[in-house]
TrEMBL record, chain A:
The organism's taxonomic lineage, starting at the top: Bacteria, Pseudomonadati, Pseudomonadota, Gammaproteobacteria, Cellvibrionales
Molecular function (Gene Ontology), one example: protein-transporting ATPase activity
Pfam family of the protein (one): SecD_SecF_C
Membrane topology recorded in Swiss-Prot or TrEMBL: Multi-pass membrane protein
Record localization: Cell membrane
Protein name, entry field: Protein-export membrane protein SecF
Quaternary structure, from the entry: Forms a complex with SecD. Part of the essential Sec protein translocation apparatus which comprises SecA, SecYEG and auxiliary proteins SecDF-YajC and YidC.
Bilayer-spanning residue ranges: 129-146, 153-174, 180-201, 232-250, 256-284
Any one biological process term the GO annotation gives: protein targeting
Organism, scientific name: Pseudohaliea rubra DSM 19751
Keywords, alphabetical: Cell inner membrane, Cell membrane, Membrane, Protein transport, Translocation, Transmembrane, Transmembrane helix, Transport
UniProtKB/TrEMBL annotation, chain B:
Descriptive protein name: Protein translocase subunit SecD
Domain Protein translocase subunit SecDF P1 as annotated: residue spans: 232-290
GO molecular function, one term: protein-transporting ATPase activity
Gene3D superfamilies: 3.30.1360.200, 3.30.70.3400, Multidrug efflux transporter AcrB transmembrane domain
Family to which this protein belongs: Belongs to the SecD/SecF family. SecD subfamily.
Stored InterPro entries: Acrflvin-R (IPR001036), SecD (IPR005791), SecD-TM (IPR027398), SecD/SecF_arch_bac (IPR022813), SecD/SecF_CS (IPR022646), SecD_1st (IPR048631), SecD_SecF_C (IPR048634), SecD_SecF_C_bact (IPR055344)
Residue stretches in coiled coil: none
GO terms of biological process kind: intracellular protein transmembrane transport; protein targeting; protein transport by the Sec complex
Annotated gene: secD
Species in which this protein is naturally found: Pseudohaliea rubra DSM 19751
Location of the Protein export membrane protein SecD/SecF C-terminal domain: 441-601
Amino acid sequence: MKVFNFMGWRLVAVVFSAALLVVSIGSLAVRQLEWGLDFTGGTLVEVHYGDSADLDAIRSTLDNSGYEGATVVSFGTDRDVLIRLPSGFTDSDGNAVLTVLEEASDTAVELRRTEFIGPQVGEELREQGGLAMLLALGLVMLYIGFRFQLKFAVGAVAALVHDVLITLGFFSVLGLEFDLTVLAALLAVIGYSLNDTIVVADRIRENFRKLRRADPVEVINQSLSETLGRTLVTSLTTLLVLASLAFFGGEMIHGFAVALIVGVFIGTYSSIYVSATTLLLLGVSKEDLMIPVKEGAELDDPAP
Amino acid sequence: MLNKYPLWKYLLVLGVVCLGLLYAAPNLYTPDPALQLTGESSAQVIDEATLRRATAALEEAGIDHFGEEIDANGRNALIRLRDRDAQLRAQARVARALGDGFIIALNLAPTTPDWLLAVGAQPMKLGLDLSGGVHFKLEVDVQAAVERRMEYYYSAIRRVLREERIRGRVTVEGDRRVALAFRSEADREAARALVVDKHPELLLDRVDEADSWRLNADMTDITVDEIIDYAVSQNLTTLRNRVNELGVSEPLVQRQGRNRIVVELPGIQDTAEAKRILGKVANLEFRLVAAPDAPAVEKQRFEYRSEERSGAYEWLERDIIITGERVSGAQASFDQNGQPNVQISLDSEGGTLMNRATRNNVKRRMGVLFIERKYRTRYEEQADGTEVPVKVPYDERKLLTAPVIQQALGAQFQITGLDSPMEASELALMLRAGALAAPITFVEERTVGPSLGAENIRLGVKSVQVGLALVVVFMVLYYRIFGLCAVVALSANLVLLLAFMSLIGATLTLPGIAGIVLTVGMAVDANVLIFARIREELREGRAPQMAIHTGFERAVSTILDANITTLIVAVILYAVGTGPIKGFAVTLSIGILTSMFTAIMGTRSLVNLIYGGRRLRHLAIGKDIVQGDVA
């Protein structure tokens, strides 16, 4: 089979990743994230009009009824309207808004959903989300350090941090709303990217033991080439279902699908370049992988 | 022989898949929209006549209904409707026809056939985002409960010092400390002994200053946690009782974290109504039982609240001794003789008032009244001739108990002579319900209308179908026969996932559906890994049977590592996440577990069935194998 010289391009990859990271971190620092209601607190009302809704009329109705600063946008179709009240309104305002809209409209107004999130809850969620992310990274590092070797753990975590930051950056640059489902997607990205990284790492370990003479760059190139087919196929099937989710899943799940699509792309790339490059930087060698006795026994396996 | 499973392995795979089909099957039956009728009090029995009145009202309004049933003990009745849109209208009609005293709740009645129910198969529960309903998150103001306890310590310590004639100054410092200061060391030691005896849970610390001997009594973290637990669990019990009153078919009242309570009410649309009942405050009044010769203007008649004594009543004085705000705690326990009793503590002012009222009335009886705000429905006719229901509030006062006063009472006293420990704990609960140990506030509220719920299901199912179809087409085109095996395994995986979730009673949410879709995409990964290995082995010149064998063998450890790490992430998601994230984590974790079974064992048995034990020249595992085929 053809062995691609992946690592020959690693400088280009480093520059590319660095550029993406700088843009992401810069945007996160300057523009921050468009936090969704789950995190900011506030009130949200989604209504469905019998006829296409006049957003300006709704805005002025709300302004006149004491709901200044409400954002009114259409949600999916021109009949569905999403109204967001800034924090400061109480939990009873969701119903009140519906009543106001019903009185002002000629056509039927149907309540689709209301959400009220107190400010303290939102703040906690942000903390919890960050904590979950750190915990996931920490435990994963432990597991890989235990199953493989510390250098692999560092490589995997570098790839994960890379993926999470760039996905976050994507949401920040485009100003997409970051809500709870997107956070869930981000953690799923960690899971996915990890899956990829481990498959590659597994092969690198195997090849280090098999190709005793080869230098690390050759071993890694060989391993990446061998796993390339599998990496691409799995990414493709995952992207297929995510595309289906993004197109047919409806508005409430759209952010989730988009975050995962971005994450799968980045995760596929990072499992090839980020974790492997990190391994080379850390100076991985076959001595690193000869220690565990049980794993060594596999070598003597009289495989046919 | 190579690539032949023993018979039992085939049977195992087949058996698991069949069981999966059986337990996933109930989800195929769409539930009927229904009305659930319940009596407001447990004495209210639903009989045939009531049901006939309800169905007559529906017929009059031209609403189709069928399959009416009353459950065995006559507490609930169910009326199934043909049309989901008519549900709200039907509810209003039936409420109007039956009048007060009944709770009419919207419900989705499962249509699971009896033979499935017989083996314990149940459809999955739908989350609020799919079924429609209200989700509340309430926060218990635990600070208030802690402050209340501080007040209690403060007054209790002052009183005991006064009783023992120890001179000293008592102040509250911060929110955790009662500070005592004495003129002499002897006073301090005497006081210390008293406090240790009465309140062993306080942490005592002597501090010597120039001219005063001080003693700091601190509440420990353990005590504070106990107070918080007590306040939250009390609110939990109270909320459960009130939610039952709402007559929701499957409510959820659950503690979350340190001081939050989550309430989920499927099928409820009117959040205002739900909040009114949840936020309702019960109260208590303590009054003396009137003397037999008291003039009528000075006394009032009250009925007992409990059902065993329904109809019995007492005459109480009009003067109120104290109300429920003065009660700081009530606990069921036992006296020295093992008889059940209820220990009541009042705050300092309550203690003074109670003492004043009881010291001259020993051997008389004292009644405890339970006051609840209730609502009557009145129908008002509008100008346009339509009727709107109007809720008129009123206070219902019923007698809990009327024990004899044995001696002058203070801030701490007990009610004895109760029949059973059950009665004692019920009474304690009632007394606490009025006490409002800690106020609650709504910190989160989500309502999903029924139409959005139905749409979410439709969209979710569609994206699973389309996603699955795309993956099937791709896998079969790319891996041919092997792809077909993987696709069959993937479908089995979906079935097992649904069966598992139905069995453990997991709730399906929209993010949960997203988790299923993601599982479909990622579950083929295990097969892709195996197939890629087999291709490699073929390329290296191994015979087809050997390639299958080593391909599966070698891929397994990679699959395990990859899946275990993903599982770690899913478990963290579950542990840290709330609501929607939890739903996603559950489907993701179960999906990982079932996919390992179907992708490794399921696919292997299919491949074995097709290729096992045959002399093979090549494998249908995609086009590039032809080149590497060493036939």
